[in-house]
Amino acid sequence: MNRREFLQCAAVMVSGMTASQLGLALSDAQRAHLATAPNYNAGKASYLSAAQRRILAAACETIIPRSDTPGAIDAGVPNFIELMVSDWFNATERAIFDAGMIDLETRIPQQYGMAFDRLTAPAQRDILEALESAASDHPWYEFGNVQRDFISDAPFICQLKELTIWGFFTSERGAKEVLRYNPMPMQFDGHLPLSPNDSTWAGVVES
Fold it and tell me: Is residue 152 part of a domain?
């Protein structure tokens, strides 16, 4: 499976929708991958430094914090992101990610007097919101659905948010403890009513 197919599969898995709903025809190899893929979060990452791992973990947890449901750290998202950057990013994407991590690692201590991961949760949130505000005119914010490819020139904050969401909702804990999980739905009902408090379903089903 190549990089494009992997990212396409990840988009389908996160959407909680069927391939037919997305207008997306999955190949036999892609279907086999979705059915048998190992826990990618469990792989050993070795791309970032220890300090960068702490920063990344804090940033992910700011995006999906622990509450009455698991947070990004609980679901193994920081490790997932590190693996994605090292194994699947192209040179352009990796350079943007590296620059973003260096910015958090060097600028924040100069500005706040301590590392990003040691700041209070509100301060961490303010920093990420400032990054998002600065990037808000990028086409990444116009995608509107999951049928696009991964945008290679997306700013660091966009990469961070997208990978955090992918990593969380494709993890076992995200799927089973946040989404509603039924490993054998047996059928697809495109008109199943949802209440305002209902989450989407985990996994991919076919009509």
Answer: yes
Q: Write out the DSSP string of the chain.
A: --HHHHHHHHHHHHHT--HHHHT----HHHHHHHHH---GGGSPP-SS-HHHHHHHHHHHHHHS--SSS--TTTTTHHHHHHHHHHHT--HHHHHHHHHHHHHHHHHHHHHHSS-GGGS-HHHHHHHHHHHHHHHTTSGGGG--SS-SPP-TT--HHHHHHHHHHHHHHTSHHHHHHTSB--S---S--TT----TT---B-S----
Per-residue confidence band for 175, with pLDDT thresholds at 50, 70 and 90: confident
Q: Taking the model in full, what pTM does it have?
A: 0.71
How many separate domains does the chain show?
A: 1
Q: Is residue 202 part of a domain?
A: no
The parent domain of residue 130 ranges over: 48-177
**In three state form, how does the secondary structure of 30-47 look?**
HHHHHHHCCCHHHCCCCC
